[in-house]
Amino acid sequence: MLQSNKKRNNMKVLILTDVEGITGVSAIEQIAESSPEYPNTIRLLMQDVNTAISACFDAKAKHVYVIDGHSRGENFDKSALDKRAEQVYVKDMGRVIKDVDCLVCIGMHAMAGTYKAFLDHTQWSIRFHYYYYNDVKIGEIMQSAVFAGAFGVPLVMVSGDESACNEAKQFVPGVYTASVKTATERNRAVCADEKIAVERIYNAVKAGVENYDKIQPIKMELPFTVRIEFNRSDYCDEACRDNPNIKRLDVYNAESIKTEIKEWKDVLL
Length: 269
Fold this sequence. Notes:
Blueprint: H1 2-8, E1 12-17, H2 38-58, E2 63-68, E3 86-88, H3 93-96, E4 102-108, E5 128-133, E6 136-138, H4 140-149, E7 155-161, H5 162-171, E8 176-185, E9 188-191, H6 194-210, E10 224-230, H7 233-241, E11 247-248, E12 253-258
Parallel strand pairs: 1-2, 1-4, 2-3, 4-7, 7-8
Antiparallel strand pairs: 5-6, 5-10, 8-9, 10-12, 11-12
Helix pairs in contact: 2-6
């Protein structure tokens, strides 16, 4: 009990973000950097992120790391980021994950092939059709949970559209979720009122962080197989051409065998 209390007195949290599942984004055009709506999308992103940061500290976290996980990781308005948090980058995930007690994912989307999910995809909608772990179809939520789980870190909270939240609960028993929109079709959604959505995020993050030791990390037994079904044969050609660790299976499918998880790339093909 003394060790548990000591750990809680120095609790650290990692927040990983995406954009498709943030509050107020209801159309595909809003995530295009060239769109006149994009600055407001970034405002909404920072609002969700800062809400999560505040909830972490209110849950007695002593340190909060945050990673901009969308596209090239250049979406944050750094001047608007809560100064109590430390921004790190995807390349640093292998180092940071060893230092935290739990993972929070903000603004997530459902895996490729999910019906009535807003902007469903896994990693790259242009090239990748489906992603699999040991022949089980997975998405970016599961990738995040598996990466964190390899270091004994549980995924405790996910925000996004209703389908993303349902996916999180399917793969991570006990995870807390905050649904901020419901898809009407792949590229359109109906969003919850901004104030209500932010309140949902705050409450779910706070509860998840406070109860992190009650949620089991997702540990994939090693070795495991990562397989991608590509959208076109030439995309499969390119993936296999220069990587001896990738084995082509057929016209569209390629796989790699993972024997360790040390960096984020180790949960990808």
